[in-house]
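Fold Annotation — chain and its backbone
Next Lines — sequence and tokenised fold

***
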Amino acid sequence: NEALGQSFDSLLEQRVDPEVIEKIKSEFEKSENHDNNLDIDYNRKDGSRLFVSVFISPVRDESGQVMQHFVSFIDITKHKEAQDKSEMFIDELNHRVKNTLATVQAIVWQSFKKSSDLQIVRESIDSRLFALSRSHDLLTREHWNGVSFRDLVNEVLEPFGLAGDGAARFVIAGRNVRISPQTALALGVALNELATNALKYGALSNEAGCVLIEWAVAPMPAGNRPIIRWQEKDGPT
């Protein structure tokens, strides 16, 4: 009843952009049928935000004269919110991809810096990218909301025997600390580097050695800081 006999403008809240109002008026002034929709952002009576798609079509009499207009409002609020969320996810994905590519670039640069032997370089890059991939898998399972450092240790060191018969060669100590995705990617590569070195030259290169990994959070003036300790025992001198 509030809408009957009222002008179209009365249906819109006053804060609607004047340019939108002008576009709507121009739609009424067109004499031909058209498929253009106008998306309008304004508020409901209760103040909540509303997105609608407006379709305006002329209604003609037998002689072809425009007698009135048929106007339909389609509530697209959920569609608009989903679109905004999708754009946010895309922006976040782009950010993560750039960070990962920067990490890959650093891995390649470090690999060539340490050796000129292409076979050694290839094995080094493969190992580091594999560690980065495992960190990615863990973050994906956690929906990229950060991960437990203990879970990261277990994930990265599994290929080195942590989850199998070689588990006795690792001593893990530390409370469950959550770390950010970017920190997890960096530490995942670092842990792989330490484990690879231990396997080639350190405590994991013989049958008697073991590795202690422990961490704690230390309060600092700039905020809490994780202190991570990697200690090898009974390896080669």
Remarks:
- The chain has five helices and eight strands.
